[in-house]
């Protein structure tokens, strides 16, 4: 460890002594621009992430950012564009996908022991952190859906497949315990209608056929509660040709069996080149 930056001199000294680091500063750019620093780990309050990333771009230093990347999607996208334009190594640090229990379960997914993963549930809860900035909506950018939900999102993406794109996200959030402006309880549901239609389509395709989704729409019929089930079936034409389009409809029902939504997916089919 070459250099340590903290907003407070007391914290910088304490951290430097703990890790045997000879250089510390309360000036962010001084730490990042240090001639011996080759990679920067950003472990700062959320509202300082973008400033630190842009300084890394300015001084051409590789950078790793702790979660969440930004306070919102716009801020995160600006940082991504900046590091790519600067041509520096960059990484987003997520820890829960490297825990022993996750790695063991992920091996079962990769080995096919669980088949194709269509549904995943992740829950994250704890009583902290207790830093003052975390409870400030402007500095933090959000509450538990941002700070804890990012773990759940990454775990779910890893299980289901990062190539599967969600078509809609429904989120409930509320402040129930803590005296803060941000949410301290949240639930998010991701609609993966493409997966359901894909299973029906792929199971019906003969060998040597290729397919890609070109369109997707969702029709919401009523508010849904409880367990939701998606069903889809399709019948292909007797002959396939390049450019052929097929519309597949997935029906989503609630626990009573009533249809609450329909997902219409357009697939373009073709013959796999030999």
Describe this structure in words.
The structure is a single chain. The strands form four sheets. The protein has a four-stranded antiparallel beta sheet, with helices on one face. Strands 3-4-5 form a three-stranded parallel beta sheet, covered by helices on one side. Strands 1-2 form a two-stranded parallel sheet. The protein has three domains: 3-93, NAD(P)-binding Rossmann-like Domain (Rossmann fold, 3-Layer(aba) Sandwich); 96-191, Dihydrodipicolinate Reductase, domain 2; 193-271, Thiol Ester Dehydrase, Chain A, CATH 3.10.129.10. 19% of the residues are buried. The protein contains nine helices and eleven strands. Helix 3 packs parallel to helix 4. The chain is elongated, with a radius of gyration of 24 Å. It is an alpha/beta fold and 274 residues long. The chain starts with a strand and ends with a strand.
Give the strand order, joined by hyphens, for the main sheet.
8-11-10-9
Give the total of beta strands.
Answer: 11
Radius of gyration: 24 Å
Number of domains: 3
Question: Secondary-structure element order, as H and E?
Answer: EHEHEHEHEHHHHEEHEEEE
Largest sheet: 4 strands, antiparallel
Percent of residues in beta strands: 25-35%
Helical residue percent? 25-40%
Average pLDDT confidence is: 85
Q: Per CATH, which architecture of the largest domain?
A: 2-Layer Sandwich
Write down the CATH class of the largest domain: Alpha Beta
The number of distinct helices, counting runs of at least 4 residues, comes to: 9
Low-confidence stretches: none
Cα end-to-end separation: 54 Å
CATH level-3 fold name of the largest domain? Dihydrodipicolinate Reductase, domain 2
């Amino acid at each position: 460890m070459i250099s340590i930056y903290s907003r407070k001199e007391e914290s910088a000294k304490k951290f430097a002594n703990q890790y045997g680091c000879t250089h510390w500063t309360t000036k962010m750019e001084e730490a990042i621009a240090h001639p011996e620093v080759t990679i920067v780990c950003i472990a700062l309050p959320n509202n300082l992430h973008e400033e630190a990333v842009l300084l890394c771009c300015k001084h051409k230093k590789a950078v790793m950012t702790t979660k969440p990347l930004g306070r919102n999607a716009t801020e995160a996208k600006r940082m991504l564009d900046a590091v790519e334009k600067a041509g520096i190594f960059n990484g987003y640090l997520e820890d829960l996908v490297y825990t022993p229990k996750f790695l063991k379960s992920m091996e079962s997914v990769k080995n096919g022991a669980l088949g194709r993963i269509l549904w995943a549930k992740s829950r994250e809860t704890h009583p902290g952190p207790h830093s003052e900035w975390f409870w400030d909506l402007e500095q933090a950018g959000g509450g538990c859906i941002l700070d804890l939900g990012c773990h759940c999102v990454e775990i779910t993406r890893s299980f289901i497949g990062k190539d599967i794109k969600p078509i809609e996200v429904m989120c409930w959030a509320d402040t129930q315990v803590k005296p803060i402006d941000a949410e301290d309880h949240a639930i998010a549901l991701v609609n993966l209608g493409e997966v359901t239609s894909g299973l029906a389509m792929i199971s019906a395709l003969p060998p040597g056929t290729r397919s890609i989704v070109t369109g997707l729409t969702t029709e919401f019929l009523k508010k849904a509660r409880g367990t939701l089930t998606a069903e889809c079936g399709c019948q292909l034409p007797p002959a396939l040709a390049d450019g052929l389009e097929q519309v597949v409809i997935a029906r989503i029902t609630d626990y009573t069996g009533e249809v609450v939504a329909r997902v219409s997916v357009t697939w373009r089919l073709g013959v796999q080149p030999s």
